[in-house]
Design brief:
- There is one protein chain.
- With 557 residues, the chain is mainly beta.
- Helices cover 12% and strands 36% of the residues.
- It has three helices and 39 strands.
- Helix 1 packs antiparallel against helix 3 (521-554).
- It is rod-shaped and about 140 Å long.
Length: 557
């Protein structure tokens, strides 16, 4: 029995070391496989039997068997790639892929993805990479009392992980909803447009939208123009005119009137009058065609300290040059006054608060943090320092002794880059921007460290499209290898814990890179030598035991 047991112990050793050599061979075979994770085999003793000794009962081992085969999820080195869709994970996490039309999910560290003919971002098996769509912000108008936050807008993921697909390699046009214009207005400039009855709106009185030149250059101090876009991507010129108001005993404050305008022919607003009849404001049919917003800016020692804004409301179509029809402007939820031009002539879209309108937010570097009401929707966010709040432009009057008679934001917040009035040798535009654009063709994409796939278009736009989903597991060693660099979850691994790259517990993603195999050849060669020696030793056990059995058989001769 003793010699027979020795044979079987040797055979178990041969079997175990053969399997270990298989693991080593598989590791070395995949030394250049993208994203491959090596494996380690560990042994344990098979069993022990009791054996009588002079001191009692002892135990004798009966061989060896495979204990575990653990995957090595250590980080692999990166190699550069010329393909923007090649990705490598630095840290924990796996890409989540899924066959088209199936609920089955697989996980992989291999990031060699490409767009197929249907626009899906797929791996070499045609399995689709999963990610979140990214929310795009839009301007909305405040219709109830509230406080506004000045926190910056940022892209957010929405919904659940879905197939990453570019169904259209074009960038749809985006209408302009935010305009920022920061200027330096010359405090030595004269008052070019003056009026004894409406000194704060003299430029508006001199505006004639039904003429070829609505406002001659001699009737304003400065103007600045930028292109904005409508819903179908057509560009229009938006011009802001400025002119200083002559004040008397204003206590060091200076006041400038401004006027936000578009081309009179492009203004397609239609408003009803008090009699209920619709009036076409724009298309050069009225003298107010093209005027979108009028108002004042107050400067204290050259710095912007206050602002008023007036726009035509839904019943302002009767006499559009009548200042009684110009009411305090609505605010966006970000605290900026809004107007609209209705470039496409849509119905119910000619005032900023209309259902189908595309509100245009005007940012001169000052916003309102308090959007509460004084007793009605017209007064939301507005206050008057001296006397009653001028709810219409006509109520502002002709008193130029103090800027306190003008409407102002309830809680103004002036940004570091704001319109100013300093003597720098002349007026100038310091900064201007808008968020609209025309249609464009996708030229290339890029992937950020947070896994955000961004499209770069021929119209100069850079749009965030998807955020790649990464998955981690409580017990990654419980994952099942499915071949093709794929893993699947099991009961032992636990469910996938998904999240965005760079979030808690998730690694970051490097674009234009691929993770190489983490197999180290030197380590595998050392293991190969020790495995070979172990196999040889077990063969010696068998041959030696066989020799001993031969001696036993020879005893009967």
């Amino acid at each position: 029995m003793g010699l027979g047991a020795s044979l079987y112990s040797g055979i178990s050793g041969l079997t175990a070391h053969s399997e270990r050599m298989t693991v080593i061979g598989n590791n070395l075979a995949n030394v250049n496989t993208t994203g491959f994770k090596g494996a380690r085999m560990q042994f344990e003793d098979l069993m022990s039997t009791d054996f009588s000794t002079v001191n009692g009962v002892g135990q004798v081992g009966r061989g060896v068997r495979v204990s575990t085969v653990y995957s090595d999820f250590g980080q692999g080195a990166f190699e550069s790639s010329s393909e923007a869709t090649d990705m490598a994970i630095s840290g924990d996490g796996m890409f989540l892929v899924s066959p088209l039309g199936e609920d089955m999910k697989y996980f992989s560290r291999a990031g060699n993805f490409r767009f197929d003919q249907d626009g899906f971002l797929v791996d070499p098996h045609g399995y689709i990479l999963q990610g979140w769509e990214i929310e795009r912000s839009s301007t909305s108008v405040t219709t109830t009392s509230s406080n506004t936050s000045l926190s910056p807008r940022s892209a957010r993921i929405i919904g659940t992980p879905t197939d990453i697909r570019l169904e259209n390699f074009q960038s749809e046009p985006n209408p302009t909803t935010n305009v920022s214009m920061v200027t330096n207005l010359d405090p030595t400039a004269p008052d070019n447009s003056s009026s004894s009855t409406d000194p704060y709106f003299a430029m508006f009185s001199n505006w004639h939208g039904d003429k070829e030149t609505p406002l001659p250059p001699t009737l304003y101090s400065y103007s600045s123009t930028l292109k904005v876009y409508d819903d179908i991507g057509t560009a229009h010129n938006l011009t802001v005119y400025y002119d200083q108001v002559t004040m008397s005993n204003a206590g060091g404050d200076t006041v400038w009137e401004y006027m936000v305008t578009c081309e009179p022919n492009a203004d397609r607003r239609i408003l009803s009058g008090m009699d209920g009849q619709d009036t076409s404001i724009g298309q050069a049919e009225t003298s107010a065609a093209g005027v979108l917003m009028i108002g004042t800016m107050t400067f204290t020692t050259g710095q912007l300290s206050g602002m008023s804004a007036y726009t035509l409301k839904s019943n302002g179509g009767g006499s559009v040059k009548d200042l009684n029809n110009w009411s305090l402007a609505d605010f966006s939820t970000s605290g900026y006054p809004v107007c609209t031009a209705n470039f496409l002539g849509k119905s119910n879209a000619s005032t900023a608060e209309a259902t189908n309108a595309t509100p245009l937010q005007i940012d001169f570097g000052i916003s309102n943090r308090d959007l509460s009401s004084n007793g009605g929707p017209v007064t939301i966010g507005w206050e008057g320092g001296l006397g009653s709040l001028p709810q219409t432009a006509a109520m502002v009057g002709s008193d130029v002794s103090s800027a306190g008679y003008l409407a102002n934001f309830k809680d103004p917040a002036v940004s570091a880059l704001a319109t100013q009035s300093f003597d720098t040798g002349g007026p100038s535009t310091l900064f201007q921007s808008q968020d609209g654009y025309s249609a464009g063709i996708l030229q290339n994409i890029s992937v950020s460290r947070e896994g955000v796939i961004t499209g770069h278009y021929s119209n100069g736009q850079v749009l965030e499209l998807y955020a790649v989903t990464l998955a981690t597991f409580t017990n990654e060693h419980g994952l099942r290898r499915e071949g093709g660099n794929l893993f699947s979850e099991t009961r032992e691994s636990g469910p996938a814990l998904t999240g965005q790259a760079g979030s808690t517990g998730k690694g970051t993603i490097d674009g234009n890179s691929l993770e190489m195999s983490n197999v180290d050849m030197a380590t595998e060669f050392v293991r190969m030598i020790s495995t070979q020696r172990g196999f040889q030793a077990n063969t010696k056990v068998i041959t030696t035991t066989d020799s001993m059995l031969g001696e036993v058989i020879a005893m009967k001769r």
